[in-house]
């Protein structure tokens, strides 16, 4: 695994790359990709960072694990590549977007346009073995992505963190709430959404309102 990450992140993350746990993680991922089918493809592992430079980060959405079905994961949490059927959580995200802002349901589930505007779509674990959810958890990725959240919290101001579901909410302790905003709601998965924990959260309009209040350009959430 080459750490093919946007230059803007390197001054902040180089210390992590040099730590023993990260070197062990790289070896583990290399071995997994050599011996098993894994997702996303190697060149997409750091896609979240490559489409959202450190300087551009204004919103962070935290996911847990990449999709483990064929052709789904593209390195951004909740996102799928063009032409791939939308997974249930993404369907509910788009339904909420429709309700909140009145945008038509998009054809593509590719969230790269959000990332390109400064939305860091960060999975806690950046790789997974095909058809084996959670197979690359507790190998070092969480330590790395926790460090990413802490660095954003320490080095930037007025970032909006969207914490969807119990797993994401645990990351709250890494964020300085005196200088950043946090919006919390249930997970967009059907299990949570059908119990009333997701729909009506209006996180998309609330995020833009928070960005406007601090003079930061808003996110164009509408996907073509």
TrEMBL record:
GO cellular component, as recorded: cytoplasm
Keyword Cell membrane on entry: no
Job description of the protein: Excises uracil residues from the DNA which can arise as a result of misincorporation of dUMP residues by DNA polymerase or due to deamination of cytosine.
EC number: 3.2.2.27
PROSITE patterns (alphabetical): U_DNA_GLYCOSYLASE
Protein name: Uracil-DNA glycosylase
Any Gene Ontology biological process: base-excision repair, AP site formation via deaminated base removal
Entry's Gene Ontology molecular function annotations: uracil DNA N-glycosylase activity
Reaction catalyzed: Hydrolyzes single-stranded DNA or mismatched double-stranded DNA and polynucleotides, releasing free uracil
Enzyme class, broadest EC rank: hydrolase
NCBIfam families, per database record: PRK05254.1-1, PRK05254.1-2, PRK05254.1-4, PRK05254.1-5, ung
Keywords recorded for this protein, A-Z: Cytoplasm, DNA damage, DNA repair, Glycosidase, Hydrolase
Family to which the UniProt record says this protein belongs: Belongs to the uracil-DNA glycosylase (UDG) superfamily. UNG family.
Subcellular location per the Swiss-Prot or TrEMBL entry: Cytoplasm
Domain annotation Uracil-DNA glycosylase-like: ranges: 50-211
Active site positions: 65
Superkingdom: Bacteria
Main location: cytoplasm
